[in-house]
Design brief:
EC 4.1.2.50, 6-PTP_synth/QueD, 5-stranded mixed β-sheet, zinc, alpha+beta
């Protein structure tokens, strides 16, 4: 394959019409990753995690919606702003046992709290009424250990 430098940069309203920017009417998902550092310990656990220790958590958020007239669904910058307000400001460089509701600070418990807090912000900023919704969250506690939560699991109570 031969590579070429473009001879002309495409210009709006000259080379492409604004009405062509939105290519489809399908639901699509965008995903953004974040990291935060925090300390915690586990109660009623017989292993080394019963001791105070820390992690660099990796949080992967997937949000679906429909594209706007320009062809963008939810801007990555908007996802970042919601994350910073709802999650990072409350968990980064914090002692999780102190800042989270009364719970054992496992990834399995934390991921549900993160979902609820992020979802509240989607509603507060009117993203939900525009058709946007959380689809999946993955929370890595270590590079090889993580919890996953999907929309259908949050919408359907399967507890027993």
């Amino acid at each position: 394959m031969e590579f070429e430098i473009p001879k002309k940069v495409q210009k709006i309203d000259e080379d492409i019409e604004r009405s062509n920017l939105k290519y489809h009417h399908k639901r699509v998902a965008v995903t953004k990753e974040f990291t935060f550092d925090a300390a915690h310990h586990l109660h009623c656990y017989e292993g080394k995690c019963k001791n105070l220790h820390g992690h660099t958590y990796k949080l992967i958020l997937t949000i679906s919606g429909f594209v706007d007239p320009v062809g963008i669904s939810m801007d990555f910058g908007d996802i970042k702003n919601i994350y910073k307000e709802a999650i990072e400001s409350r968990l980064d460089h914090r002692y999780l046992n102190e800042v989270l509701p009364d719970m054992n600070t496992t990834a399995e418990n934390m991921i549900v709290w993160i979902w609820e807090e992020f979802d509240k912000k989607l509603k507060e900023y009117h993203w939900k009424e525009k058709g946007f919704r959380l689809e999946e969250i993955v929370l890595y506690e270590t590079p090889t250990s993580y919890a996953t939560l999907k929309r259908e699991w949050m919408e359907h109570d399967e507890s027993f």
